[in-house]
Design brief:
Layout (H helix, E strand, L loop, with lengths): L3 H15 L19 H8 L4 E7 L2 E6 L4 E5 L18
Antiparallel strand pairs: 1-2, 2-3
């Protein structure tokens, strides 16, 4: 499980790269980890914009232009991937 300094580093990294950018595509790869249907997830995120990523405890909170909040708990693995458009996801 990532510790608070790790989450703060991820928060800063993500804020420097995605704040204000439109979300072109959203996908849930492992549906069991989401608390909403994958179709609703994609519909809510696609076309939206990230305003800021904040941290509360072990959660990273992505605040969106639509006033939605995407809460992410890295849980045990703490694995994150930031990929440029067209880059292949790593396993």
């Amino acid at each position: 499980m990532p510790e608070v300094p790790d989450l703060e580093a991820i928060r800063g990294y993500v804020n420097a790269r995605i704040t204000g950018l439109p979300i072109a595509r959203a996908e849930i790869v492992i549906p069991i980890i989401s608390r909403m249907p994958k179709e609703d997830f994609a519909q809510t995120l696609e076309g939206n914009r990230f305003t800021v990523v904040d941290r509360r405890g072990k959660f990273l909170l992505s605040l969106l232009a639509s006033d939605h909040i995407m809460a992410v708990n890295a849980m045990l693995t703490g694995r994150w991937q930031y990929l440029a458009s067209g880059d292949k996801k790593r396993g």
